[in-house]
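In response to reviewer comment 3 from the previous cycle, which asked for concrete evidence that the modeling workflow produces usable outputs, we include below a single protein chain processed end to end. The sequence was submitted unchanged, and the resulting structure tokens are shown without manual editing.
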Amino acid sequence: MLAAEHRRIIEDSLATKNYLDMRLRELEYRLIIKMGAMLMAAVIAFATLVKLLWC
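The workflow returned the following structure tokens.
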């Protein structure tokens, strides 16, 4: 009984390769979205500076 309970606790807390792959994929998606937003903000800021300095 006690060994089965310990085994269940250990198996519930272990991270499988599939779980880690899924979490890494989610992290990559969030990172890509954030980097895209930062890139868009940088392009807008650069375009605004060019427009202000050339006119």
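The mean pLDDT is 89. We consider this sufficient to address the reviewer's concern, and the full set will be provided in the supplementary archive.
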